[in-house]
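User: Predict structure, ligand nicotinamide-adenine-dinucleotide.
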Amino acid sequence: MFDPDNQQLVIGVVGAGLMGRGIAQIAAQAGIDVHLFDTRAGAADDAVAAITATFDTLRAKGRLDAAARDAAVGHLHPATALADLAGCALVVEAIVEHLDAKRGLFRDLESVVADDCVLATNTSSLSVTAIASACRLPGRVGGFHFFSPVPLMKVVEVIDSAVGDARVGDALTGLARRLGHRPVRASDTPGFVVNHAGRGLLTEGLRVLGEGIAQPADVDRILRGAGFRMGPFELMDMIGLDVSHPVMESIHDQYYQEPRYRPSPITRQRLAGGLLGRKSGRGFYTYTDGKADTPPSAPLPALTSTPLWVDGADPARRGALLERLAPGVVLDEGARPGPDSACVVFPVGGDATGAALDAGLDPCRTLAVDPLFMDGHLTLMTTPVTAPRFRDAVWAALGHSGAAVSVIHDSAGCVAQRVVAMIVNIGCDIAQQRIATPADIDAAVTLGLGYPLGPLALGDRLGAATVLAILDGLHAFYRDPRYRPSPWLVRRARLGVSLLTPES
Ligand SMILES: NC(=O)c1ccc[n+]([C@@H]2O[C@H](COP(=O)([O-])OP(=O)(O)OC[C@H]3O[C@@H](n4cnc5c(N)ncnc54)[C@H](O)[C@@H]3O)[C@@H](O)[C@H]2O)c1
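Assistant: Predicted complex:
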């Protein structure tokens, strides 16, 4: 087994494409000798030249001194044959994403390297166990899943296969730290942690669109307002549906049609139509010179004299909403709304219709505001029968204070509530399945997906009991097992403890 801290460590990288280059770059910078091999003639030399150019740029920017630049370049060795990797203590493969190619490569490598050489795969979607099982010594194989661009994405998933030796994962974990990356140890399961945890945002965003609740631009605005760097539709446009739709299908299939990961016919159709996103110039948005033509928000109606009655069942929520009102809005302070007042309710896990009827309010005059996301972008929801005059009165009362408001159709769990609850629930189930520790799940998601918080910390911020209430509301409304809560969430909500609490 290799020692990750060995100052004379020699490794091989096979596949000198995007990922292989990145891995070779960070290894060379960490003082590790790297032999780089690619079957395409000249590819390894090109990669070494490209990495050297990167080091020169870093040097010019003052991020690498001359000695460090020279040392790093000196650690890069293009290989002309697989046999050149004979002396490596570790070989990381980053070749095409085909099971047979990876199995064939590892079998070939086994006839070249020593028996204690570790073989690591950078696969994103294949089973590490299936790759390992082709080897004479399957225990030596582990997953080492980097993200693109490797030098900037400071997280790597270290995957223990079902037939692996735990010392392989230990050594790769140590190496990850030496490379300056945060290792996340995970068991060999579909999507590992990052691509598994990423299902919530995309598939629930697509449910909202598929149900005609809100348009992509509004869903994206609402979720950016909830703290996400990108909403689901701008994210899918950036990744490209040619990549993201097959991943959605693959994870759903590999989990035997688990409804939490159910993909959408919307992306399937759009993929068939070539509406890939940024790369094709048209996706959920259209692009001119690489910039999205985001449709403007709907024009804000004028302020009216219609009085506003705001549900006071939860005084904190009522107070938070009153703070967001424009000056001059007429408030109806009665215990029950007057005959011409617009009514505002605050559903958690429910919709505007249910909240109006449950409170004995007139649904034609009622709107709902998402009470859990009132700090930034506001979500205002109509019932199917809310009269436009009452909708416009509440919209103007909020919008003229300078608040950004999206007016959407009725939705159990509004938009942010249901999307965040799905993200939390999936994160909880990753913990429940013991795929990774709670701390590693959150680290993987913040570093790998750029979310403001990991799913478990996101759940803690809302409160486990609140997330459970949202899911219970969605489950009762849709009668869809997609929304059944994970046991991890249910127990911690009942115990009143953090979702980051591991099993004792
Ligand atoms: N691109 C990403 O964002 C990303 C992220 C994480 C993981 N991955 C995974 O990393 C791997 C590589 O992806 P990439 O984007 O760098 O691909 P790439 O197409 O940029 O590079 C692959 C390289 O492998 C070479 N190659 C193919 N078969 C080979 C073989 N049998 N032996 C030696 N070299 C061979 C090709 O010539 C090519 O240079 C894949 O498994 C992919 O799923 C990719």
